[in-house]
Design goal:
Radius of gyration: 12 Å
Helix content: 25-40%
Structural class: alpha+beta
Order of helices and strands: EEHEHHE
Strand order of the largest sheet: 2-1-4-3
Number of strands: 4
């Protein structure tokens, strides 16, 4: 089961879809218990982050980028997230199974 990831605008229209290595349940599971964003990604439902939460997510992805189990997912997702530096009225949506 993979989690789809998309950048969406304020109307909910898809701007870009993540095409990297599949994101799965391990990403939220491997994030720290003190995580303020990543640990709340729901692999079975949808999770949406606003611009402030995306910034926090970037920090959290960086902190787990060297993890053997999810490092490839984290690095690839971090690259995808950073492609949208102008985040005004944009949302990062995780779409679970």
């Amino acid at each position: 089961m993979s989690i789809d990831v998309e950048w969406r605008d304020e109307r909910g229209e898809t701007l870009e879809r993540y095409e990297g290595p599949p994101i799965d349940f391990r990403l939220p599971e491997r994030s720290s218990e003190s995580s303020r964003c990543l640990r709340f990604i729901d692999p079975y439902g949808d999770t949406t982050f606003n611009a402030a939460q995306v910034a926090v997510s970037e920090e959290e992805l960086t902190s787990i980028a060297s993890d053997r189990e999810v490092g490839e997912q984290a690095n690839s997702l971090l690259t995808f997230v950073k492609r949208h530096s102008d985040r005004l009225h944009k949302y990062l949506k995780f779409i679970g199974d």
